[in-house]
Amino acid sequence: MTHPFHPRRSVLYMPGSNGRALAKARELPADCLIMDLEDAVAPEAKAAARAEIAAALQTGGYGAREVVIRVNAANSPWVDEDLAMVARSRASAVLLPKVESAATIGQALHKLSAAGAPADLPVWIMIETPRGVLDLDQILRGQPRVAVVVMGTSDLAKDLRLPPGVGRTGLLHALGHCALAARAHGVDIIDGVHLALDDETGFQIACQLGRDQGFDGKSLIHPRQIAIANECFGVTAAEAEAAREIVAAWQAARSSGRGITVVRGQLIEQLHVDEAERLLALYSATQ
Fold first, then answer.
1. 107 to each of 31, 86, 137, 282, how far by Cα in Å?
2. Domain range spanning residue 243?
3. Are 202 and 130 in the same domain?
4. Number of other residues whose CB lies within 10 A of the CB of residue 142
5. pTM recorded for the entire structure
6. 168-174 long-range Cβ contacts below 8 angstroms, 24+ apart
7. How far apart are alpha carbons 279 and 242 in whole angstroms?
8. What is the distance between the alpha carbons of residues 248 and 110, in angstroms, rounded to a whole number?
């Protein structure tokens, strides 16, 4: 399955039980919204959260943003009702937490289908355990409905027994492994959250490190993080102009029968053109 291009620089979690927050999200510059039924919602508020999300999506008004619903875990008592609501909603995708095997995806797809969900509803999956990290390549094999991998770094850090405040150091291997697996299967991958809301410098560094590792965007816990994520994972006007120059030079070279060209002293091949075209698509989609 070929998924349409979407910018995913900023992916903001929204508590599904907070109707005011869901309404305010219509005005936020986040690329994607995750309306949460899992961690952000107390057990006694699950049913109310489903109703809030269903009402918000029925009302609409979220524009071009992807609106994704995170359901509860496959072994929870709420997941069947969650998936039934998702099937009837107008969500852009469903997010499955704590995925450790392809069977979890298959079970969710079966329940979604039985509840009448669109046959092409995309699936996002969270990787937040050592088993999920190790098996991500196998999980993604033969799963054309999976469009995005989201890293659950808080749970992963806990399972890895990382000391508090260690930052990304202990996660680097797992993050790199997952980025590699996602790219091997042609799906986007979103970096984990940064919990220190008052640490703007640290958040900016984390975003840059995520981009340097190949992530497409950052999952966020507060609207104040949106601007930095959009800037870090976005494309500047200067970068877009350089990309246009590469594409134009390549087209001129091909017209002359040449398979390579030089732009600003750099040898340009097809791989550079592919990346330039991706940057231009992202730039165009975020203007």
1. 28, 15, 19, 33
2. 237-285
3. yes
4. 11
5. 0.93
6. 168/206, 168/209, 172/213, 174/130, 174/133
7. 10
8. 47
37 near 46, Cβ under 8 Å? yes
Identity at 90, one-letter amino acid code: R
Give φ, ψ of 167 to 5 degrees. 75, -150
Residue 45 in any domain: the answer is yes
Number of domains in the chain: 2
Find tokens 């029925």 and name the residue.
Answer: 58
Average pLDDT score over residue span 4-8? 89
Burial class (CB in 10 A: 0-12, 13-18, 19+), 51: middle
Cβ atoms within 10 Å, residue 281? 14
Token code pair at residue 225 = 């993080």
Contact assessment for residue 13 and residue 28, using Cβ atoms and an 8 Å cutoff: no
pLDDT tens digits along 118-152 = 999 999 999 999 999 999 999 999 999 999 999 99
Residue 211 is inside which H or E element, if any? helix 200-212
Task: Classify burial at 28, counting beta carbons within 10 Å of its beta carbon; exposed 0-12, middle 13-18, buried 19 or more.
Answer: middle
Do 33 and 112 share a structural domain?
A: yes
Of 233, 252, 272, at which residue does a domain stop? 233
